[in-house]
């Protein structure tokens, strides 16, 4: 609520002061720098030509800027300097009232310019629009920076069991073929090595009987148990 009241008061002050200064500046502009320089010389103002040009330009441009709300603080500062110079070199010693050449108009204008110089022209104006644009842009940048600072870090990808491009699978050579001594993919888990078969005794090299075989044959034919093969000689 206070901000709304300030914006309204600043707008009214800007409009009234802007119209007053713009009217005086246009009046001086129509008279011309030559005539204004001679008047400033008669008034005892130092550097009359330069002072006349300063007063004409500042009142015209500064008054217009106050109306539209552009560069309000700078315009208020330049106009306040002119009002101080007007009091010091023209109105001082002539009392208060304007009929006697007093300083009431210069003093009232300076008093109205001080709040605009200190606080600005409010949100209703070009300065207010630009300030809102800059503030939103700064807030957006701050939000983006804060989001980037609190963003979770993504860990580096670890091995997933799949070979990278250009790498051979386990059990494969660089060309995709199984390595020597290893089974192909899917076969090594199901195949087992063949069990070793005991070596069988060898048959006699010939079908002829030897002297050692005769006792065994006799024991098979007779009822008596065989004496077995005599011990090796």
Query: Can you give the helix content as a percent range?
Result: 55-70%
Number of strand elements: 0
N- to C-terminal separation? 132 Å
Poorly predicted ranges: 181-192, 200-206, 225-233
- Broad shape: rod-shaped
Structural class call reads mainly alpha
Report on this model:
- The chain is mostly helical and 233 residues long.
- The protein has a domain of 136 residues.
- Helices cover 55% and strands 0% of the residues.
- It has seven helices and no strands.
- Helix 4 runs antiparallel to helix 5.
- The longest helix is centred in the first third of the chain and has 30 residues.
- The chain is rod-shaped.
- The N and C termini lie far apart (132 Å).
- The C terminus is likely disordered.
Give a brief description.
Helix content is 55%, strand content 0%.
Key structural traits:
single chain; 233 residues; mainly alpha; disordered C terminus
Secondary structure blueprint with pairings:
Layout: H1 2-31, H2 33-42, H3 48-68, H4 72-91, H5 104-119, H6 126-149, H7 214-221
